[in-house]
């Protein structure tokens, strides 16, 4: 393990419920010998797998952290078999700011794996996950929502695994979530995410995208609460009665590459033509960008680049070139079993 | 009229369509002799009233500006009787930033009336509306949405007028909008808004709140497009065929005072218990604030202070003390005629 | 009274203890319909004068607010005669930031009287004090410390009153505080402070400067706790037993004009030659400014401009031209009776 | 005179050379009892008029301040008749920042007259000029250059006076400067400038524009050094031998209104077609705006709106809508005598 | 090749003209799934070398990007032999900001080679150039101007190559540019620039410095337009008739080390004594720094450290210690053939 | 040695006094070809060890830099045997800002060793120390104070060395400083500090903590002046008469691990219960956090985690979770000889 100055008041090997913190020492202008203090809880009982449950990977995604806080406060340790390691606000500075990225170093935690214990704070946090937590885990749940910039269909996410057996294990766990739809998302092959790191470390991995738009969605919160318990039941930590009714004919999609994203080509305000969930085809008009500062100029139209359903849309009306306006999820072409 | 250095390329007295700008000279670090250039269009024909249509009062509210841009580009001048003065992006620096307030001086345009031609830029813009535009108008439409921080039930808004006849005139015009609900909003008596200034200047005034959440709502955009045309028909500018079906039994509410607002008392993440439109009563639990950075601490519950429907909710989950979490609209106790 | 949208949940005329807030509605980018929520408490019983106790005039001065918080939570209403109106964090945004000035509008609250209910937030707060609170008060205590930039000898402060009887009343109340020294400070005639406004409104006024340096001083906190109670006993609100032993031969000084201030003339790091309390004479070397970035250059020496004691010194070593490095308090030349 | 806390170590009535400062007390986060310290020098001898020489109205215009610094250090008081009041860095915070506007309050000093001694710092400085300095002066020289955003033909400037005799007096003094060209600039009637305030106070007023582009121009510095001395000779303060050869047939222009300014209509990079001094006509292509981020889009062309010479051009290539790209000076249509 | 998530819509192997973009996915607060979209064009025909033409290495240098935009829009593919890969705004975020460095991560693109596909955005862009573009190129033109902080004699630049044959190849190509002067610049041995990376990759490399001062120079633009075509003719891509008249006795200089730079030692405003192009000697006074905030203090003089011509000067008058005020180019002591 | 573009005007091998700079070339927006210029002085004579004396590791710690500046200006080279390399403002940008960390790249210099000559400026500075200075040194003094956020008992610091003989050498040199107390501080094992790098390079290492609170302490300055000379005498560079009276029974403590730090768990204002130097025990109440914005809420108490003396306290009253409020130094359990 790489040398680190991080420390914690949690004993990972003790039974029962512990609610505490791990600390990343930092030395900024206003606190020479202080720390970034990150919530960490462990609930353990009997025998069973260790499941790491992460929220707050991005600081403006709330359904996961709320769900994990409820488990931390309310779950009776005696009702489980195994160990839960809960980090509901892993990028704490971002969570406190209510921002996707950390105000400390400007980094997106989900682009920092495997981290660096001698790097800036966000990299030290991901190094802690990489070096201290992942080696203790059998499974990893990373609970995302769309965040301030995206409104996404509530869904459970499969992080692709190169090994087919691992991929099946992931898909099975994800389907246990019971989300309205399941989506395979590879982020264009991005290797620096938490779920990619967990897959690389061999864990069973489940992701989510719970609505978003920077708010707390009542519907998505309900899906998340039941889905997390259902996955824990699937993994054998909770009683099988917590398993949601596994959908008999699950809808599985994939975000299949660059053509899935409708990107802005102009600076203006985006008006979409369809709602999330609508079926669309490549080449079809998707929306248009208005030039409010110059109303005599005709809006510029955008088109879809793939067939499928509208899976996500940009929340802020204001767009600049390169902004992601819409995302299409296409029917999954891989195998489910 | 107060002395001003503003100028325009628009001739307010010419017939037909003119699309141009008015300019507020400014002299910041990077542009010693330049201007803030604000879109201004006039469409005039025949005889009839002058209607001022304003969008972009706040820079992150989009349905109104999009609707006005469409009118500017597409309305055939020959089809109207009277004059439209269109200012679809009145607080231009805020519109360009996609923010509620102006990045130039930090001001909320809607708290600057009657403005000051020797003040900062936002005050100069409101002075222009006050001194140059309002004296030319018979009616004033100020097209708001909820903006980035609020998600509001799409509605048409009555700005109260002290004179009962003026109040009736306003209510009649607002009901012509045909919105799902109509709400009397006095902003706790705030006199510095554009609509308050327009009422004080004697104009017939119509306001809107079109969803919000910082995005473009397909539903609200549709309501706005039809509502604006319907009001113009009511005022005699457009053919009566443009009038939306006036709802036979309109739902009219009011935001009746400080008790209508559910304000945060803690620093955390707000989870509401009800959707917009739900019926609620004073004293009933309204939601709770989670302490994600300290998950062992129990959430703090908030309660409603008035009977009515949930009219608006805060969009960002992140709240701080004083933030408006929810707004209750109560049945209107005034007279409709 | 000037028109305002502020509101409160406190009933100024009720007996007993009330702990609540007053609200200044605001409408920034992230909270369209929210408020600045400022703590306000009233403790009332029997008959007697109304005393307004203010802390948090500057947001980085702590002994006063801590003392007022203790009174709010712990004082038994049955033990007083009269009414206390407590505003321990009056410039709330500055207090939350831990800064002298407000992050909302950049203003120093103590340069904004008489305020403006149509102005920026800080001006609205001072308008509330001016219009709602001062008219209800007989006496006004404004509890300052030195703040982040100054370390000041703990002292009670006399705000000069033009009327000699009013001046004697102020001096008597200030001497009742029992501070180690008493200082008459006129801030070069500044009329925009809270204490100047209270004097102008006819109230008996007591000020303090409790150490400073941006920290909580144990000594100064002890002086403040006892001094406030002693003044309340002097005013007849608390039992006379709370009166501190009035010093038989009080030390009274004045900061008598521009020559009392030793101002930096260079950009560097200031090394003082004497401690607070040292006796010094006009013309004597006071300290020197080092040029750390250019160590070959000889430091520049500063001199005192008045005879007296070193009353205050700059806390941050880093200085720029115009910064106040030292303040001399000279023996008071006015009458004490 | 309005009440103020400003003070100075200069005795305006003493003969000889005094180099000191006036102070505007301020109380920001990092300096509770300090000042803004602004250079002020007086050189007086014998009998003669009082001339106020101002530099640093904008903090990124250097030829005037350098010239005034040389006079302050080098001029032998025995060689003059009258009094010079020199303020070479009047908006000191802007000068220290090297910016047009003040970093303290964001204000352009030249839009703040008549100032306010209870306002923000820049307004307090202009109030000092208005209340303390202008009443002592017979003539006022305000030495500008183009600043960071403009490159201007070196020229002497006439601030229009409504009284014809006053206007002749101004023109005569300006022609004495001996600049390559003389331009009447009314800033679209702007009344808040220093020169407008000085005209309103009855002083003889001379302005300059000395190149600019944020740099020190060797040519413009030479023109400025000789021009200032020549004006002082014209006013009788310096020996007539310092008068520059008054040009026998002076070139006099005016910036005559909004059509003189070529304003950007797009967001991009501006390429001008002509150099400063070129003769141009209304309607002629003036330059074009390139869209570097979208090189497939054709540039947008701009045209002149008046006949005359290219008097100024924007220095930064990067432009946004409303930015002033070019200024045309037209032959002066008024009378020179 | 290092793993990357970048993608493009350009087919590098297709003939004819393609104008598109390459995308660097990014995930900031306001755009979770968007990209930085960077213009990329390919013009290919027949057989011949591949030439990479880069502009916008720094975002405030315009002659190169304008020239490349004209080629992208106007060059007839049928007139060339070979392939042009054009990246006119390579550091797109800096170009949009009009700044030398990227607002995204604060980095100077020209200090980031060889880049890192897992690094911040600017490092990902340089990794794309390093991994995707340079391997496809035979020659590399990097078109700089002086930028906002420097005004430089228009010149063509030789990046030194350790291999003498490579060095000769570079010099020959640079002399083909036909610039008024040619300068060998090694940036004190800096290996992280685009041209150093291209030399290390074996390409023939040509650099430029086209005036600067943050503006578009008509003269320099003319030199750049003709020079680029002339180099393309030299490389065999364009018809030889496009070759500028190669200067028979080219003036070749070098910036030979630390003594070539005249660096500020004080905080003030710099007045140079000579124009660009003037001949100067080591030890000769070069200019002086004025202390405008303290006009009684004598200016500080600076001296040249090398013999040669004044090659560049600082544009902003405001200087701080370490700022480069002037650069001397000395006659080149190396071999030209 | 790693490749670097840094340069200096100092000849490390020359005898006598040299006062100059070393330069790190940088290329930011406002200075394309300039440098960060860092003071460097060498005083050499006769034979003896080379001692590196560093100040300004953090830019808001002043006693060390003032002491080194005095040595640079005043020490007679003829009185020493050996060589002093003095870097009194090593993190120059932080020193100029008066901040702990560098405004250039946001880094704490003392977390950047061994640095990187291709990294950001702070990393380039530490690379210069690592590659150019440390190899020339026999001993290294790093003179810290508490800085703006901490008030620390004036003390000399031992950086632990893994080799016992090296550790004894360090302790002996530190005890020669003659500070009131001596403390072994390992910063939780942090390897990226200057002293850790110097120990790793084999030098004898002495650290200090001289009060702090962002100011210049008269007492600490006196301790520092005498202590530095005393260490130089101990090392044989100065005459033994400069050695302070070595305390016969030195008080030696250690900061022994995470339990030594009392960290804030809430957002509020911290009131300590004891002064620095007080004896305390683990479990004892240490202070409490007040909620000034919500005065009805009871303060939260903190407790010590170790036995010992209060060694340091937070200076700013305002605290947030994770901030270091107090530090306990426990009696040193290691060997002193």
Automatic annotation (TrEMBL), chains A, B, C, D, E, F:
InterPro entries hit by this protein: AstE_AspA_cat, N-alpha-Ac-DABA-like, N-alpha-Ac-DABA_deacetylase
Domain (Succinylglutamate desuccinylase/Aspartoacylase catalytic) ranges: 48-235
GO molecular function: hydrolase activity, acting on carbon-nitrogen (but not peptide) bonds, in linear amides; hydrolase activity, acting on ester bonds; metal ion binding
Source domain of life: Bacteria
Keywords: Hydrolase, Metal-binding, Zinc
UniProt cross-references to Gene3D superfamilies, sorted A to Z: Zn peptidases (3.40.630.10)
Needed co-factor(s): Zn(2+)
Protein's recorded name: Succinylglutamate desuccinylase
Organism: Inquilinus limosus
Organism phylogeny: Bacteria, Pseudomonadati, Pseudomonadota, Alphaproteobacteria, Rhodospirillales
């Amino acid at each position: 393990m790489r040398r680190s100055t991080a420390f914690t008041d949690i004993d990972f090997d003790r039974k029962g419920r512990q609610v505490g913190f791990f600390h990343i020492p930092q030395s900024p202008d206003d606190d020479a010998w202080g720390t970034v203090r990150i919530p960490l809880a462990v609930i353990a009982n009997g025998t069973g797998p260790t499941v790491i449950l992460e929220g707050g990977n991005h600081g403006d995604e709330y359904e996961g952290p709320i769900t994990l806080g409820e488990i931390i406060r309310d779950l009776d340790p005696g009702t489980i078999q195994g160990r839960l390691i809960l980090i509901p606000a892993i990028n704490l500075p971002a969570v406190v700011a209510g921002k996707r990225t950390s105000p400390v170093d400007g980094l997106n935690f989900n682009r920092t794996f495997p981290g660096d214990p001698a790097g800036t704070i966000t990299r030290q946090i991901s190094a802690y996950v990489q070096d201290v937590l992942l080696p203790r885990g059998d499974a990893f749940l990373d609970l995302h929502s769309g965040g301030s910039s995206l409104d996404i269909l509530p869904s459970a996410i499969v992080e692709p695994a190169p090994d087919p057996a691992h991929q099946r294990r992931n898909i099975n766990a994800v389907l246990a979530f019971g989300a309205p739809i399941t989506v395979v998302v590879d982020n264009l092959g991005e290797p620096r995410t938490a779920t990619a790191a967990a897959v690389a470390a061999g864990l069973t991995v489940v992701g989510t995208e719970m609505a978003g738009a920077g708010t707390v969605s009542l519907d998505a919160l309900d899906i998340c609460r039941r889905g997390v318990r259902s996955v824990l039941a699937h993994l054998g930590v909770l009683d099988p009665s917590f398993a949601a009714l596994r959908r008999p004919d699950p809808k599985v999609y994939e975000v299949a590459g660059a053509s899935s994203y409708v990107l802005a080509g102009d600076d203006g305000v985006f008006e979409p033509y369809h709602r999330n969930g609508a079926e669309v085809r490549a080449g079809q008009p998707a929306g248009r960008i208005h030039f409010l500062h110059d109303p005599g100029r005709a809006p510029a139209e955008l088109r879809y680049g793939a067939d499928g359903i509208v899976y996500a849309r940009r929340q802020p009306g204001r767009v600049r070139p390169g902004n992601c306006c819409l995302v299409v999820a296409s029917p999954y072409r891989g195998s489910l079993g």
